[in-house]
Target: Precorrin-6Y C5,15-methyltransferase (Decarboxylating) subunit CbiT
Amino acid sequence: MEKIQWNYKTPGIPDRLFVRGKVPMTKEEVRAVTISKLRLQEDSVVLDIGAGTGSIAIEAAHICRQGKVIAIERNIEGIQLIQQNCHRFQVELDIRHGNGAELLETIDSFDRVVVGGSGGELKEILTLCHQKLRDEGIVVVNAVTIETLYEATQFMRECGYQDVEVISLQTARGKQLRKYTLMEALNPIYIISGSKGQGLVQEEER
Amino acid sequence: MEKIQWNYKTPGIPDRLFVRGKVPMTKEEVRAVTISKLRLQEDSVVLDIGAGTGSIAIEAAHICRQGKVIAIERNIEGIQLIQQNCHRFQVELDIRHGNGAELLETIDSFDRVVVGGSGGELKEILTLCHQKLRDEGIVVVNAVTIETLYEATQFMRECGYQDVEVISLQTARGKQLRKYTLMEALNPIYIISGSKGQGLVQEEER
Amino acid sequence: MEKIQWNYKTPGIPDRLFVRGKVPMTKEEVRAVTISKLRLQEDSVVLDIGAGTGSIAIEAAHICRQGKVIAIERNIEGIQLIQQNCHRFQVELDIRHGNGAELLETIDSFDRVVVGGSGGELKEILTLCHQKLRDEGIVVVNAVTIETLYEATQFMRECGYQDVEVISLQTARGKQLRKYTLMEALNPIYIISGSKGQGLVQEEER
Amino acid sequence: MEKIQWNYKTPGIPDRLFVRGKVPMTKEEVRAVTISKLRLQEDSVVLDIGAGTGSIAIEAAHICRQGKVIAIERNIEGIQLIQQNCHRFQVELDIRHGNGAELLETIDSFDRVVVGGSGGELKEILTLCHQKLRDEGIVVVNAVTIETLYEATQFMRECGYQDVEVISLQTARGKQLRKYTLMEALNPIYIISGSKGQGLVQEEER
Model:
């Protein structure tokens, strides 16, 4: 692993700087929107379930400097990538290897949770998250399937979450071919988010 | 203007918290991706040309705490909104009222520039930005028209910018209608970015 | 109502030529894809449930010259628009005013059905359609909500439909503003289709 | 080559029924919209420049039964695919092998032209098409690059075309993975169209 020159602890790490292996990675445009929806605070305790390469967890850790980020991943190759990326971007994460639902039992409480992968156990994971999420806490689900999109949306409505948002994002990136810029699509992603309790903003002007 | 409870100096301010008037506003998903492409550092000097309501400039200022953000807007209503939003989010911007190309003459140099509106003078503005942008500086253009998309892309290629990226972003937001979630589209936006000189990342593993 | 010069009985009637009222209308790009997914034959008997302005039914009738198109619409204003559009485009439709589920009871059988609106009774309508649809018949659902998208997809999978396709379509249209082309988004639409029985194509090279 | 059972001469041939080789193929959703924008008539003489696998030309030929469709392709592998697909779908095309601009010199006049590929000679091709296109004729350009999108739009505006339309289309298709439907994006396509002379519709109600 060569050294790279990237020692900014600010948002917007280019995708190509992460060690990636064959693990699917949240693309930087999706990462930016996901982190935006998390409405992180400096002292937030954040849980990233299905952390993949750790890219979201690492950018979250740059923001939550007085908080803590826990990255859960059940794929051992993913765990190694997260460790490598932590080293590369000089970030400390609490990395835990295992199944999301099982590991959730061992975690006390948190302010934010992002579900990037649920291994087919979305409902169990969201239910456990709901129990352990602090009041005014925020859940963000990144979905790539119709079923996860639907189930996450239903779950948040049924639990009476505030500020439920359902976003679909279609990104295309230009690839240079001689004098041309060929637009290539990334797969669409659905970002479902909501806030437990009264929501982050209690009093506002409309 | 009522008071709102939002005193986080972190990314992800919800759109509805900004004072907006009738000025077009960069939506929060686009804002997040734009700021990501700016690859801001804590000490960056940032220029926002066509700042609108100031939403990008304000989030940039939260990140660039040892730097400085200059917001240029030629619409006087916009200037007032930027001031109100600065007050609301407790941020200090260097706000300048006037034409982008003219005001650029008065500015020394900067590390980052985002062009949200060019008033039909894109080429002049990009040329001036190019002259004043520091080496390894980054330009980001948010385009809503085919012509701005094309011209910004051409400009960056012709100037030999590094890491030129052309992104198209189509966002839709779910609107709750009884038990249904109706997906409503935001207009597509094109985000063109590039880095002067050798680019931010000089040495890297591929 | 002025007369217009459009007497082609071929695909691609421009949206602006339809009498539209305030009834939501399937946009021509969506209409084209929907009709494509219907895989119409010249002698098909086609049902259009929630026909709106009749635009899909009218283009289907241009293709199914030895068949028949039945247009169901529960909104009386819609019925009048369908009649006006039939007159305008010289097409004969079997127009029926009323609730989709109830009217389905009165219809014998058909080869194709497109569900453009279900008035909250999607499951009942799809179940009735399934009973009355001929073997190798095709169902196409146009959905604008997450819930309809999910339920239509689930229904087709549970009924063992062949060639189930789930398509999302995001269209933007350029609007000329002086020398600029501003891209304006249409709302995303989801087109779910499937074939009863063995599907249209029984034997093929892969 | 096995025989397939598809003898409908109607719109909506599924992509997988075409013999495809390694030649890029216009996807069926894009094909449907492209044909819609061509506003074909039964007696239209249609030119397809960069015909690829012939999928657009073949569907056009199904509609223009009293007209004629000329398919130009410079890739010899493409020519063979077009011939195979003509045989498969029982259609007669006038197939010409060679460079678009050169072959255009040999063609008298036509009512419709679709440019699917221009081999870097878009301007020459559009200029020649403009000369040979009959009054009220229609040009449709399918673009996958920013540069073709821009140049085609500019060309049509500069030539004073009527009803200039610029459409961007982002399609995603669901892929079944066990009980999930994973949405996979197709690359975005831009469809630019316009009508020479006064346009197809001379008199209309607005």
